[in-house]
Each structure stands twice: as C-alpha cells, then as structure tokens.
Amino acid sequence: MIISILALAFNLKAQDAETMFKAAVDKLQSYDNIEIAFDYSMINTEAGINETMEGSGFLQGKAFKLHTMGQDIICDGRITWTYNADAEEVMISEVDSEGGSSPIAIINSYYDNITAKFLESNNGSTKKIEVKPLIDDENIEKIVVTMDNKSLEIKDLHVFDKNNNEFVYNITKFVTNQKLPADFFTFKEADYPDVEIIDMR
Q: Is 33 in contact with 176 (CB distance < 8 Å)?
C-alpha cells in the first residue's frame, strides 16, 4: 500500500509538471506576436567551449526574425533568408517540413509524447521543469525550462543535444501583441541592391 501511495504521488507530481509546461506553451501560442531579447550561450564542458553572445528578434507563429552572431535570420514560415552584412550576401532556403527552427517551434515540438518533472523552485516564484521526449529524438536529449510560477512567462531555456552541447537562452526582454507590417517577416531584396543572393532552394 505504501509503495502504491508513493507511486501515485510521483505520477501526480509528474503530471503537474507536464500540465504547467503545456499551459506555458499554450500561452505562448495565444500571443499574436512576441518581441524578445536574450543572452545566448553554447556550452560544451568536455571540449572547453563556453561562448556567449546577445540576440534579439520577433516571433509570430512559424515566422520569425532574429538578429544574432552578426546575422539576420528572417523566416515567413515557408522561406528562410540568412543575411550576413559583413559578406553582403543572403542565403535563401526552404523551411523543412517539420516546421523550421523558430524558438517557438522547438518548444512546440515538445508538447506531446513527453515526460516532465520539476527540478527546483525559487521560493515559489519560479519553477524549473525538465522535459524529455518519449519518442527518440535524433538530436535533442532534453530541454529544461525556467518559468514564472504565476504568469507562466519563460525566463530561460536550456537545450541539451546528444553531442554534449548545452544551448542556453536567457530572456531579457519580452513584449507581446505589437502591430507589425504585413511584410515584416520577409527579406526585401530591393532594399539591398548590392547584396549577393545565394539561392539554395
């Protein structure tokens, strides 16, 4: 009986973590758009790598516009433009069938067929949740999300891949539901007459 009670308590705790994570994802999806700024790190302890940089961007469904590592990456959900100002070139490619590389798309992909558990809390103000896929993922081992306990706003996201890399996104700005132009998530070649176009489609 004691073992059964402990097992039930563990299952309820896991269910609560999964419910909270899915509620945060649902809230992200409810916004018309999101503007973010973030500190980005790539860490690999075994290889002695710890690189940090800043980034910013806008997210709207499958569309996004990100500025990081000296590049502007723009995606309308179907086509991605990667613009390098130093090289004066833009690379054009099609979005893969799985929904692209938007940060929201990464989080959304961890909505179903997952297991989740609480790792720690900060005096009840934030919760840290570890999420793993039940179906084997070729690249990602798990993600760890820290979120506000009340607003469900995501504070940071840690992505662990199977090559012992950890990618960390610390959110420093979070603004929602702004009015954006209809062509906001497209690269306007006319504005860059000297740019070299590399079309990979």
A: yes
Tokens coding 115: 């297991």
Q: End-to-end CA distance of the chain, in Å?
A: 61
pTM of the model: 0.76
Give how far the C-alpha of residue 101 lies from the chain's centroid of Cα atoms, to the nearest Å: 8
Choose among 143, 133, 63: nearest CA to 102.
63
Percentage of residues of the chain with pLDDT beyond 70 = 85
Are 155 and 170 in contact by the 8 Å Cβ rule? The answer is: yes
Tell me the pLDDT tens digit for each residue of 154-176.
Answer: 899 898 988 899 999 899 999 99
Gap between the Cα atoms of 187 and 25, Å rounded:
28
CA dist 171 to 18, 155, 164, Å? 22, 5, 23
What is the CB-side half-sphere exposure of residue 181 using CA atoms within 13 A? 7
**Alpha carbons 78 and 38: distance in angstroms, whole number:** 25
Coil, helix or strand for 29?
helix
Q: Which helix (H) or strand (E) holds 6?
A: helix 2-30
Beta bridge partners of 67: 56, 72
